């Protein structure tokens, strides 16, 4: 866990929803629809930030737990959330939950800010706490394709710079290497659903967690 003095998102937290919520609403809605259609009930929101995804799922009747390493982000999440959501201040690479605790886990726009080693540990831990037959739903950046996508990426790049130097360096490297699309394959994880979104700058993927996830035709 980090203390406030080590919270690299302390300055960003008050600005985060204003900068991102209008752009991420459709992505979060798509994730919620996938969770609903697959019939999952218990959900873990990994790297939950200010809790917008967790609140959307809780409002649709799901049992939601959420974790983040930033005290400032979690403070805002707790302030704005109903009491039914369980928030935990902890490292997503070292989750305290027991194995197979959740039907589904979500990692939304968090992997790009991590170095490759940290990404692998977070995905491994997320898979561990997700039951057999469940899934990991991941939304994150991909390499943009087309003039409109490249133009929108310029806006995204500004927001990612605001998040800090290390964050931005990891983001640039992540996108340059293809972003989310090759990641699951590189880690030997099976993708069962793949949807482009965010003006062709991001994708939502359902990744197999321990076998036989919902396939959503």
Tell me, rounded to a whole number, the average pLDDT: 85
Radius of gyration: 16 Å
Strand content: 15-25%
Largest sheet: 7 strands, mixed
CATH architecture: 3-Layer(aba) Sandwich
Number of helices: 7
The CATH class name reads Alpha Beta
Low-confidence stretches: 1-5
Give helix % range.
Answer: 40-55%
- Order of neighbouring strands in the sheet with most strands: 3-2-1-4-5-7-6
The CATH topology comes to Rossmann fold
CATH superfamily: Vaccinia Virus protein VP39
Structural class: alpha/beta
How would you briefly describe this protein structure?
The chain is α/β, with parallel strands linked by helices and about 220 residues long. The chain has 7 helices and 7 strands. The longest helix has 26 residues, at about 15-40.
Salient structural properties:
single chain; 217 residues; disordered N terminus; Rossmann fold; seven-stranded mixed beta sheet; alpha/beta; 7 helices
Structure description:
The chain has 217 residues and is α/β, with parallel strands linked by helices. It has one domain: Vaccinia Virus protein VP39 (Rossmann fold), CATH 3.40.50.150. Helices cover 42% and strands 23% of the residues. It is built from seven helices and seven strands, in the order αβαβαββαβαααββ. A seven-stranded mixed β-sheet has the order 3-2-1-4-5-7-6, with helices on both faces. α1 packs parallel to α2 and α5 packs antiparallel against α6.
Strand and helix map with partners:
Layout: H1 13-38, E1 42-46, H2 52-59, E2 63-68, H3 71-80, E3 86-89, E4 102-108, H4 116-128, E5 130-141, H5 147-162, H6 165-176, H7 180-186, E6 191-197, E7 202-209
Parallel strand pairs: 1-2, 1-4, 2-3, 4-5
Antiparallel strand pairs: 5-7, 6-7
Helix pairs in contact: 1-2, 5-6
């Amino acid at each position: 866990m980090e203390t406030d003095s080590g919270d690299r998102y302390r300055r960003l937290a008050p600005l985060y929803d204003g900068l991102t919520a209008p752009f991420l609403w459709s992505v979060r809605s798509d994730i919620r629809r996938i969770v609903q259609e697959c019939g999952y009930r218990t959900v873990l929101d990994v790297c939950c930030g200010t809790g917008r995804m967790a609140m959307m799922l809780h409002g649709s009747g799901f049992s939601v737990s959420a974790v983040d390493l930033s005290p400032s982000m979690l403070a805002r999440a707790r302030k704005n959330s109903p009491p039914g959501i369980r928030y935990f201040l902890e490292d997503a690479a070292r989750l305290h939950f027991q194995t197979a605790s959740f039907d589904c886990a979500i990692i939304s726009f968090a992997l790009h800010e991590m170095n490759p080693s940290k990404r692998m540990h977070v995905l491994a831990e997320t898979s561990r706490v997700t039951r057999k037959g469940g899934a990991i739903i991941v939304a994150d950046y991909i390499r943009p394709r087309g003039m409109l996508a490249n133009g929108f990426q310029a806006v995204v790049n500004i927001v990612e710079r605001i998040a800090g130097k290390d964050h931005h360096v990891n983001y640039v490297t992540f996108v340059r290497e293809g972003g989310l699309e090759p990641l699951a394959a590189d880690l030997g994880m099976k993708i069962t659903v793949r949807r482009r979104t965010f003006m062709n700058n991001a994708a939502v993927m359902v990744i197999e967690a321990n076998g036989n996830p919902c396939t959503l035709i």
